[in-house]
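Hey, can you fold this one?
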Amino acid sequence: MKPLLTHEIGSMAKPSWRIKPFRRIPLGYDDLEHAAGWGERLDIEKRGELLELLSKRSGFAKEEKKRIIWFSSLYGTRLQEKAGLDLVWDGEQHRVEMYEYPIRRVEGFTFRGHVRSFDNKYYRKASCVDRPVLRELYHTVEYRTISSFAEREVKIPVTGAYTLVDWSFDECYLGEITPGASDVGRARREARIRFLSDVAERVVHPNLGSLYESGARYLQIDEPAATTKRGEIHEFVKATRESIGDLAGKVFFTIHICFSNYDLLFPAIEDLEGVLDEIHLEYANRDSRETGVSQKRRTGYDILESLKRTSFVVGLGVLDVHTDFIEPPELIRDRILYACEVIGDPGRIFVAPDCGLRTRTWEVTFEKLRNMVEGRDLAAEKLGL
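Sure. Predicted structure:
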């Protein structure tokens, strides 16, 4: 495995020319300029076809919309490749977002309305009303599309079972509990465990398996809700194990957890050694912007001490995704060098943003990612790699 391998950890913004046709909003001059400008910048050979399609401006047919998604996926992938990343994908161009997109494709859920997420975005929240049944594999076509034109290895993120369950209402499993029963606490816990196991085994695992069968060798499980309930860390670990199942050792598995109290994960998450390969956490958001490799400068990287005693690859967040501040390569270099010093092995360090960059423009995203790669290169040079 390449030391200090770089990858993007989550979503990127969708271009306006990707969004508006699906909202039945006519395209304007700026939308076409974005497609043309980035098409040239990313050396998209077929950009002429896209511009001709977009010149229609409104009233796009179903097949035309599919073609727009294809181009958006191509552009997103090329942006990451142009920035120099080792592992790439399209930044969620095929998806609505990480929760609604998979839940739409699972029987047993009914959407109840919109709720606001942490970054002032909204998603539709569903309630589980019956035992979940996977209606269609929801990332296989996406992987095949990206891998058909990607020039580098492809990694696909998949929303984890714990987050899908925790972000849903439960009218199915809890509905089986008799109100007022003397053992209602234990019954609620057992209902939660059944819900998690069903989603892990009947929804997430089949999708991971299909991606593996299609050729994917790098898969990421996104679990932003992992530490939401401090009394359920063991349930989260169990659901992760059930989601991966017999795929352990066949695929390089990353788990991504962000903006949490990471201390709650230990020691329970250590039970996933040999099942998970990489644990990616957010660090840069907590860190200072000063260069240097001392503990005083690298204030956001304390949890490295807990990861040091494990065998996990450390997914190192080095870009703050909630600001337009473009991290200088020298700052990224020092964050990496500090992590290498703590962990003691550059081969156990992968480099990525803290989380998805969907709230940033493509211009900011590209500059951040390009500097991330340059900072990695500076660190590698310093380490003699």
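The radius of gyration is 21 Å. Let me know if you want another pass with a different chain boundary.
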